[in-house]
Amino acid sequence: MDRKQFEDYLNTHKAETELMRQQAWNLHESVNQHYDKVHPYGYHLSMVAHEVESYGHEVVEDEKDILPLVFGAYYHDSIEDARLTYNDVKRAARGLALEGQGVMDERQALLAAEIVYALTNDKGRTRQERAGAHYYQGIRETPYAPFVKLCDRSANMTYSFAGTDKENNHMHEVYQREWPHFIEAITAASDDPRLTLPQDLIDSIERLLAQ
Questions:
Q1: What CATH number is associated with residue 121?
Q2: What's the number of domains the chain is made of?
Q3: How many CA atoms lie within 13 A of 26 on its CB side?
Q4: Distance between CA 134 and CA 131 in Å, rounded?
Q5: What angle, 0 to 180 degrees and rounded to 10, lies between the N-to-C axes of helices 106-118 and 145-162?
Q6: Could you tell me which residues come within 8 angstroms of residue 206 by beta carbon, excluding any fewer than 6 positions away?
């Protein structure tokens, strides 16, 4: 899909994506979750959604996948951090409605839920255990999950690299150290565009790493 087609679709469906944003922000506020202890957690969700909307034209061929993709960006931490189950996420996607009309059909709701599920960390005591081989395999095998995971990492890195406090400096070092393994782990051996990673986004992240 070319950029203009993608952007035109987003402009036509602003009400739907705004509904996703509002409900995702409210969900994380309901469990009192914050980002870097100072921002509403929705601040991060919107950063991820912005990355998805900026680069999504490079991975989407069917316009019916755009709303599930944006939903995946806003809800990607909802199981891990906001106490939802997989079925809760699917119900949330299926239940989005404007003027009594569903925003997504059953296939779209399933795709949205699968993206969120794939991005949910495994159980583990450490960062490495929570994001191990099984976790990354699930991402590589789920349409759009590699892309949304890359957008999530880009949003976190952009924020951390701009910060100057101790925690941000620590995460700066963590992200730099993890990058080679991370990009390899989310790269699927597939020609399916839904499993690919936009080179423009990779280049943008690597420019951050070079700073």
A1: 1.10.3210.10
A2: 1
A3: 7
A4: 8
A5: 50
A6: none
How many whole angstroms separate alpha carbon 4 and alpha carbon 53? Answer: 12
Helices (H), ranges, the chain: 3-12, 14-30, 42-55, 66-75, 78-82, 86-95, 106-118, 127-130, 133-140, 145-162, 166-185, 199-209
Tokens 């996703």, residue located: 20
Q: Tens place of pLDDT for every residue, the chain, 211 residues?
A: 999 999 999 999 999 999 999 999 999 999 999 999 899 999 999 999 999 999 999 999 999 999 999 999 999 999 999 999 999 999 999 999 999 999 999 999 999 999 999 999 878 889 888 889 999 999 999 999 999 999 999 999 999 988 878 888 888 899 999 999 999 999 999 999 999 999 999 999 999 998 7
For residue 34, give the H/E element and its range.
strand 34-35
With a CB cutoff of 8 Å and minimum separation 6, the contacts of 19 are: 96, 98, 103
- Residue 72 to residue 93: CA distance in whole angstroms: 9
Please name the residue that has the structure tokens 């963590």.
174
Q: Which domain holds residue 167?
A: 3-209
Residues with Cβ within 8 Å of 96's Cβ and at least 6 positions away in sequence, in order, are 16, 19, 20, 23, 71, 102, 103, 104
For residues 115 and 86, what is the distance between their CA atoms, to the nearest angstrom? 10
pTM passes above 0.85: yes
